[in-house]
Amino acid sequence: MMGGHHAASGAAAWVAVASTAPYALGWYPVSPLGVVSGALLTAGAALLPDLDHHSGTIANSLPPLTRILARITERISGGHRRGTHSLLGLAVFVALAGALGEMTTEIRGLGTVEIGAGLLSVLLMGFALKALKIAGGAARSWLLAILLSLFIALYAPENNGWLPIAVGLGVGVHILGDLLTHQGVMVLWPLRIKRPRKIASMPLLSKLWKASGSLSVPLIGRAGSWREWAIMVPVSVYAIYGVIEAGFAALRGWLV
What we know:
- Keywords: Hydrolase, Membrane, Transmembrane, Transmembrane helix.
- The chain crosses the membrane at residues 30-48, 84-101, 107-129, 141-157, 163-189, 229-251.
- This protein is mainly alpha-helical.
- It has helices spanning 3-18, 32-45, 65-77, 87-101, 115-131, 138-155, 159-179, 197-200, 203-208, 226-255; strands at 105-107, 111-113.
- It contains 10 helices and 2 strands.
- Strands 1-2 form a two-stranded antiparallel sheet.
């Protein structure tokens, strides 16, 4: 799936789960501003699994930091669409988000500063800006990511509590999105259960269970296909609707 569509699916997932607007589930309701900031963070989190590709778009979102992180991630995860695109990868990303949320320091005049959540927010914002083609060069990317993260820290400070949820949602919908492509993902990595030879002669099962051990439900075929666009255009519209509705609700709250 294309990067922009991964980001849109992450934002849509947050709107559906956290918003109390019409057409939303509202399972984890937050403030209207929390819906907006959470959608941005989850959009960035939906790009996290692609940090396993050292020359990919995400690796170049906030250089040189993201390039270094991408090379480390690629080496640990075993390559593209392996460890970071698995259930184990999902668990690790959520655990890391939770651990970073606990990293604080005391700064004179400011009190307790949650530096771990702040750093993760900057990183996720950088991913989202790059995937949505909002950022420009490295300097502009860093500036926008930092400014947006500061805005969230000041006006939606509760985000540190739900940051692991946003990361879990984002990574989860990314894995699901890539599962729907013809290449598929190794959901059970590091287990690599090879396809039996007998299944290779069965057209349907051979498409679902690749020789590499990847699983695939190729509803959208190749990344960027018309089927992907047919699915993701309404998903993107839903995400935009949710963010705008929450934004107006937050604005009304400020004006009252």
